[in-house]
Amino acid sequence: MKKNYGYARVSSISQNIDRQIVALKDVGIHDEYIFVDKQSGKDFNRPNYRKLVKNLNEGDCLYIKSIDRLGRNYDEIIDQWRYLVKHKHIDIVVLDLPLLDTRNKDNEITGKFISDIVLQILSYVAQMERENIKQRQAEGIRIAKAQGKHLGRPKLKPPKQFSKVFNLWYSGKITKAEASRRLNTNPHTFARWAKEHENTQFLLKNNEKR
């Protein structure tokens, strides 16, 4: 007997999945046939999605609210789509995008054919957007460098009590780990502050001698 399944996904536990569940129930899918994952869609290595695929049999139909609930990477979505449709011989319906419906149409042009075309277009658009983002990032970095702007996170500045703690460390009275703890930082940052402080003191002494 053919069955209808639903799949819903959010990227984290804190996100609300109710809207997807309601949409799946509205098309007649019962709770026991709805599979939910609360994790990133970067790949298909998701526990409940794997359980869903194992349950799918030839002739079954899988419903999802939108294509990005299946995954984020369109290349992987296309591979997974073809595996489900052409290997497991199931139908897929994307509720928010009626063209992504592999069930046969009245005009004898199969939904599988139309869906393949739509997926290829979506994949192309997604790839172009990724390339545009990379290009904009590269241009932004180039312009920032040309303007002499510092890229990345701003460096932490030493707190007011740094000199006192530095002197204790420099005189060997406390360790670097203890100095870092007193300044509420890590040894790497403390070492950078210490080096900058020593360089500053060295320049000041040289200026005084002139």
TrEMBL record:
**Biological process GO annotation list?**
DNA integration
Protein name stated in the entry: Recombinase family protein
Locate the active site: S11
- What stretches pass through the bilayer? none
State any single GO MF term.
DNA strand exchange activity
Asked if Amino-acid biosynthesis is a keyword of the record, the answer is no
What the entry lists under CDD domains is as follows: SR_ResInv
Any idea where the Resolvase/invertase-type recombinase catalytic domain is? 3-148
User: Gene3D superfamilies annotated for this entry?
Assistant: Resolvase, N-terminal catalytic domain
Q: Source organism's superkingdom?
A: Bacteria
What keywords are assigned to this protein? DNA integration, DNA recombination, DNA-binding
PANTHER family associated with the record: DNA-INVERTASE FROM LAMBDOID PROPHAGE, SERINE RECOMBINASE PINE-RELATED
The record lists the organism as Clostridium scindens (strain JCM 10418 / VPI 12708)
Q: Does the keyword DNA-binding apply?
A: yes
